[in-house]
Design a protein that fits this description.
It is a single chain. The chain has helices at 2-16, 79-82, and strands at 29-34, 38-42, 45-49, 52-56. The model has no long low-confidence stretch (mean pLDDT 83). With 90 residues, the protein is α+β, with helices and mostly antiparallel strands. A two-stranded antiparallel ribbon has the order 1-4. Strands 2-3 form a two-stranded antiparallel ribbon. The chain is elongated.
């Protein structure tokens, strides 16, 4: 389910930039493979996730980098695990 949500997020971002084309009509914002798999610790256990990579071919002065709101770059455990309080621990 997480993978589907990430794919949908990337798809919406790319579709939102579909109007950006070069002189020949090629899209300037496209998918470009996937980032390496990483493990994320969740409340239901450890899961492997792989985020799609996005390439913005416009010049450095106007190119935007995609950053997932669902899967931030350095996330290794979900916030729900950080809020768990264990008895006897302060």
């Amino acid at each position: 389910m997480l993978a589907q949500a990430i794919e949908a997020e990337v798809g919406l971002w790319i579709d939102g930039h579909a109007h950006l084309t070069d002189a020949v009509g090629h899209r300037q914002v496209v998918r470009n493979g996937h980032l390496p798999k990483r493990k994320i610790t969740t409340g239901v256990g450890v899961i492997d996730v792989q985020q799609p990579r996005v390439l913005d071919r416009r010049g450095d002065d106007v190119a935007e980098s995609f950053s997932s709101k669902i899967l931030p770059p350095y996330l290794r455990k979900t916030k729900s695990l950080e809020r768990i309080e264990f008895p006897g621990c302060t």
